[in-house]
Design a protein that fits this description.
Number of helices: 11
Bound molecules: 6-O-phosphono-beta-D-fructofuranose
Strand content: 15-25%
Radius of gyration: 22 Å
Strand order of the largest sheet: 3-2-1-4-5-10-11
Structural class: alpha/beta
Helix content: 40-55%
Number of strands: 11
Shape: elongated
Order of helices and strands: EHEHEHEHEHEHEHEHEHEEHH
Largest sheet: 7 strands, mixed
Length: 328
């Protein structure tokens, strides 16, 4: 493999708090290594359209604490075509980029994998998504911040739910993965979590809430993962069903939406992003390619793209048990 002199870095897909800390770490670790860094704007869209500029150490000053991504992000349709990837490769060559660091979720790492296969360019992925749905890493950049944001919101909703003696269905992000719903439910003492990984019968749920309301509680909070792409599921769906079966209950819905993706990253996300960014440069130095850098049992791990993307990260059944036990 030719010696690396210049790397490109991009953020892609849904933004996640801590992405800036990751860009900063990648940039500074690469510069420490004697490499040149090219910052690619708007994810793969910027690679296709040559929105690329050199990043120096000061380019990432005063960014570790900022949410969003200074590189901007996009879900590029053009990069999904082979013509788009050809244009992207031409720009990689024109800018002298020898290796790519891609910070993003599932779709973004899938893009890196196919680009690496087609053009034999070393790619390293960093898991950047609030969904925490990448296999092989215990956590992803942005997940902890999003979890804390949800927790603050639910605590506030609990105040009004209690005062009015209502049931709230609160929808959180994570179309295909229930990590946010499950763990925010535990952290807020919610009565239940409805997640895509587990089937939840509406009748059971309604009955469960009913029992709780009659017994000791005067309000209920149910965390619900957002609806699937086909429109099924989601907080509205479950709220409507419970309303029908229990017309006496005062049911409300709150959809937290994109506020979950914003805000200043937590210490945990900043540290994770910094560690992963430095490890990405070390991995390239060691001749690694086409792997996602993750953390497992507090150790840095290299996860082949194939595994990170294709294997479904399992939900922790024990945690579901914790939630069910504590919500009676
Ligand atoms: O992948 C991150 C995520 O926030 C998902 O939880 C959500 O389903 C999706 O992005 C929303 O994407 P967009 O911002 O493009 O609507």
């Amino acid at each position: 493999m030719a010696r690396i002199q210049t790397i490109g870095v991009l953020t892609s897909g849904g933004d996640a708090p801590g992405m800036n800390a990751a860009v900063r770490a990648v940039t500074r670790a690469a510069i420490c290594n004697g490499w040149k860094v090219m910052g690619i704007q708007r994810g793969y869209e910027g690679l296709v359209n040559n929105h690329i500029q050199e990043f120096r150490s000061e380019s990432v000053s005063n960014t570790i604490q900022r949410g969003g991504t200074i590189l901007k992000t996009a879900r590029s349709k053009e990069f999904m075509t082979s013509e788009g990837r050809k244009k992207a490769h031409d720009n990689v060559v024109a800018n002298g980029i020898d290796a790519l660091i891609v910070i993003g979720g599932n779709g973004s790492l899938a893009g890196a994998q196919i680009f690496a296969q087609e053009y034999d360019i070393p790619c390293i992925g960093l898991p950047g998504t609030i969904d925490n749905d990448l296999y092989g890493t215990d956590t992803t950049i942005g997940y902890d911040t999003a979890l804390n944001t949800i927790m603050e919101c639910v605590d506030k909703i609990r105040d009004t739910a209690n005062s009015h003696e209502r049931i709230f269905f609160i929808e959180v992000m994570g179309r295909d993965a229930g990590f946010l719903a499950q763990n925010s439910a535990i952290a807020t003492g919610a009565e239940a979590a409805i997640i895509p990984e587990e089937y939840t019968a509406v009748d059971q749920l309604a009955e469960f809430i009913g029992r709780g309301m009659r017994k000791s509680k005067n309000s209920s909070i149910v965390l619900v993962s957002e609806s699937k792409k086909d429109g099924t599921g989601g907080a509205m769906y479950y709220a409507d069903r419970v309303r029908k079966e229990y017309p006496d209950f005062d049911v409300r819905v709150t959809i937290l939406g994109h506020l979950q993706r914003g805000g200043t990253p937590t210490a945990q996300d900043r540290i994770l992003a910094s560690r992963l960014g430095v490890a990405a440069i070390e991995a390239l130095n060691d001749g690694q390619r086409n792997v996602m850098i993750g953390v497992s049992n507090n150790q840095i791990v290299y996860v082949p793209f194939n595994k990170a993307i294709k294997i479904n990260k399992p939900i922790d059944k024990e945690l579901m048990n914790v939630l069910n036990t504590l919500s009676i």
